[in-house]
Each structure stands twice: as C-alpha cells, then as structure tokens.
Amino acid sequence: MTEKNRQFLLAARPVGMVKETDFEYREVPVPEPAEGEVLIRTTYLSLDPSMRGQMENRADYVAPLQIGDVMRAGGVGRIVRSRNPAFPEDAQVSGTFGMQDYVVSDGRNVPFRVVDGALDPTLVLGVLGGTGMTAFFGLLDLGRPQPGETVVVSGAAGATGSVAGQIAKLKGCRVIGIAGSDAKCRWLTGELGFDAAINYRTEDVGAALDRHCPRGIDIYFDNVGGEILDLCLARIANNARVVLCGGISRYNATGPIPGPKNYFNLVFRRARMEGFIVLDYAARFPEAIAEMRRWIDAGQLKQQVTVIEGFRELPRALIRLFEGYNTGKLMVQTT
Ligand SMILES: NC(=O)c1ccc[n+]([C@@H]2O[C@H](COP(=O)([O-])OP(=O)(O)OC[C@H]3O[C@@H](n4cnc5c(N)ncnc54)[C@H](OP(=O)(O)O)[C@@H]3O)[C@@H](O)[C@H]2O)c1
Is 16 helix (H, G, I), strand (E, B) or coil? Predict the structure, then answer.
C-alpha cells in the first residue's frame, strides 16, 4: 500500500492525439473517511476510448470534467476502511473512482457497487464490467441477432468487440471481425471461434467483406465509424441493423469529420441504424451479469485482458489504447 494518494489530474484539453502532457501527476495525503463514509483502495483502473471525449467535454451524457479535476476512470478496488456499517471492510467494489489510489465515498457522492469478493477483479472490469455490458445490450437489444444471420464487428479484438462477436456466435450467427493486426485476427478465428477476420490495416476491407458476406450484412456492430462504417453500410442486407456503439476513428481527429456517404442504403435496404449509451441499461446490468457468468462458467465466453502494471503508466496506457496495443480489455494494475 502506498502512503500517499497518487493522482493524475486533467492538465489540458487534448488537441489531436491525447498526450502525456495532458495529465498532471501529483501526490496528496490519503483521505480520511468521515462518519458514514468508506475509504476505497483502487486495484485496477480501466482505460476507455470515451475518456478522450471526456477530456474535451465532448459528451453530455456524463458530468463535465474541468482542468485540475482528477481524471475520470472506472475501476475496481477494496474497501480498506469503513465508517459505514452497510459497507464492510475488504468488500470488493467497482465504480468511477478516477485516476487515483484512494477515494472516499458515502456510496452516493462517488457511486459504487459491491461485487462478489471472490471474482477476479479483471473480470469485474472486463467482461462483467462496462464494456461487457455494452456488448451485451448493444448486440442483443439493438442488433437482435437471429440464427444464421451474418454479423460484422469492427474493433473486434477489443474489449467490447470481442465480447459482442462471441455473443453473436452464441446466438448462432456467422461472425466476421475487423481488427488491426494479423495476430488479433488469428486470435478471433482461432480462440474465439469467429468465422473470419479482416485486418483493416493490410487488407482491402471492401473486397474481404464481399468475400465473407455474400448475402450481405444483417448486423453491423460498429465500434470505429469512419471508412469502415461506410464500407459496411454499402453491404447491408434487407432489414439490417447497424448498431452504433462507438466511433474510435474520430476520437482524436481534428477538423470537420465527414459523414457516412452510404447512409442512403438504409432506405433501399429498409434498414435501421441506431446509437445507444450503455449507462441507460444500468438497471438491467444484474440480468446481463448473471447470463454472462453462466456463459463464462460453461466455457462459452472467453475473457482476454491486457494489463499494464504501474499507476504511473496510466496516461501512456490511454495513448496505447488508441494505438491498438490491447487485445481484449485494457487496464492498469495500480497496486
Ligand atoms: N455506446 C456505449 O455506451 C459505449 C460503451 C463503451 C464503449 N463504447 C465504444 O466501443 C468502442 C470500443 O471500446 P473499448 O473500450 O472496447 O475499446 P477497445 O476496443 O478495447 O480498444 C480500442 C481499439 O480500437 C482500435 N482502434 C484504435 N484506433 C482505431 C481506428 N482509427 N480505426 C479502427 N480501430 C481503431 C484498436 O484496435 P485495432 O488494433 O483493431 O486497431 C484498439 O485496440 C469505442 O468506440 C467506444 O467508444 C461505447
């Protein structure tokens, strides 16, 4: 345990690719919990593409982040001191704890949920955490997969995409993943059972989609936006569902961002394109977690994590997320 509370603050609004100088490191005393509060020691902190937009206050679905604030980050931790009988010491908790070793909460000012203490914390932050929930509700509620349908997932080797693709396989679909390296593509087909994978950095994505989706795309689960979204829109089948989960190709872009050229194919194909924010499904997370745990226990859903060790690595880890360093869920182990 460190005696100081290490923190990264938001030092500057990023322009273009996020930089280490957009963060400021500092050490402050470990906070004291008051009556009714608990002291949480973070163990793993999550790196999420949405952190880039939050640094710029680009999204209005979360509270604004000001320069000098502790950088926002989801995490897992343990209660190391409790002055609230509802939350016992040593309980494992998850919440938006920020880039810091310690956080004090009364359960409301920094909301957290108590999770099964026996669960591997990387699972709590990964498949059973925000990105797992995103894959579950995005694919099942918006995508509504039917057996035999063709599902294309971009960002397929990442935290959300790898789970969305596996759930689509569980629902009896043919699944084609798009990812940024041959190793990731081999992992998708070899380990996760995807039917095919396309390396968007080296292959002609349009030609590969034509080859792998001869009857068109029934569900496109979009994590990246940009050109890949356009290529998929051009190949949707009748009554297709385009699930707009994310658009990472635009998060570090500067200047005007071109819209999809092929959106009008939605009309010809009587198709639907719909976005969502996973936070809106919070009340249904327990239902998803129970189902996902069944799949994990049955060996039908695999989790892959990329863990970077060391609190001081947090800013660099966020940059690495955008460089495609991770396979599966990227997190930093802080203890
Ligand atoms: N709607 C929601 O509520 C919600 C919730 C969570 C996440 N999301 C979205 O879901 C997506 C995935 O998030 P995640 O947390 O699971 O991250 P992730 O997929 O684990 O990591 C990001 C991955 O994106 C790929 N990437 C980076 N730059 C790219 C680019 N320019 N074009 C194509 N791919 C690029 C990289 O892999 P490669 O090697 O393949 O390039 C990288 O590993 C993001 O768009 C995120 O914003 C949405």
Answer: coil
**Atom 30 of ligand 1, nearest CA residue:** 249
How many C-alpha atoms does 9 have within 13 Å on its Cβ side? 12
Residues with CB under 6 A from ligand 1: 48-50, 130-131, 134, 155, 157-161, 179-181, 184, 223-224, 245-249, 276-278, 321-322, 324, 326, 330
Identify whether the C-beta of residue 265 lies closer than 8 Å to the C-beta of residue 240: no
- pLDDT tens string 255-270: 889 899 999 999 999 9
Same domain? For 100 and 147 the reply is: no
- In this prediction, residue 142 carries a pLDDT of 98
The pTM of the whole model exceeds 0.70: yes
Q: Are 246 and 160 in contact (CB under 8 A)?
A: yes
- DSSP-derived 3-state class of residue 29: strand
Domain range for residue 275? 130-279
> Are 134 and 239 within one domain?
yes
